[in-house]
Amino acid sequence: MVLHFSNNKVNEVALYDIRVLLEKKGYKILEYAPEESFLFTDFNEYNWGGGRRFISLSVQINDKITITGTGKMDVPVASIGKKSELQKIKEFDRLPYNIQKKTFLTLIEPLDSLGFKQIKHWP
User: Fold this and answer.
1) 10 Å Cβ neighbour count for 69?
2) What pLDDT is stored for residue 109 in this prediction?
3) What are 41-52's pLDDT values in tens digits?
4) Rounded-to-integer distance, Cα 31 and Cα 24, Å
5) Percentage of the chain with pLDDT > 90?
6) Contact 17, 5 (CB under 8 A)
7) How large is the C-alpha radius of gyration of the chain?
8) Which letter does DSSP use for residue 9 in this model?
9) Alpha-carbon distance 123 to 119, whole Å?
10) What pLDDT score was predicted for residue 50?
11) Hey, where are the domains in the chain?
12) Which H, E and C letters describe 72-111, residue by residue?
């Protein structure tokens, strides 16, 4: 899962603004390197029934802002047994779209309000 945004700010300022936004959304920043214009987060849990979903983000700023998401979610592995054994966590490069809409894609509007415009087509 990847999103691209335009950037007309100094990279360190843009990265700080994104860091504050992610922390407000409940993400724990694991690595913050303003001199490299890079950060990544720990997995943030979303649980609205039907299993847990986890999203981790990395942000890299060069000529544009690139946000890459990695997801994990509970998937059924058995139909008989203890409840804790019925679902296991599986890692995905791309979560189903309905889950992306509720997790990863919720970043677009707040980033837009900070002045970063989404680039929908990037070569």
Assistant:
1) 21
2) 94
3) 999 888 766 677
4) 16
5) 53
6) no
7) 16
8) S
9) 10
10) 65
11) 2-115
12) EEEEECCCCCCHHHHEEEEEECCCCHHHHHHCHHHHHHHH
Residues 74-104 pLDDT 10s: 666 665 656 666 566 666 667 777 777 778 8
Query: What tokens were used for 89?
Result: 């966590």
CATH level 2 (architecture), domain 2-115 = 2-Layer Sandwich (3.30)
Q: Contact 59/18 with Cβ under 8 angstroms?
A: yes
Mean local confidence (pLDDT), 8-27:
95
Q: Which two tokens stand for residue 100?
A: 């992306």
118: helix, strand or coil: strand
Kindly write down the DSSP assignment for every residue of 29-85, as one continuous string. EEEEETTTTEEEEPPEEE-SSSS-EEEEEEEEESSSEEEEEEEEEEEE--SSS-HHH
Considering only residues 52 and 22, tell me which one the structure prediction assigns the higher pLDDT: 22
The owner of tokens 């504050």 is 20
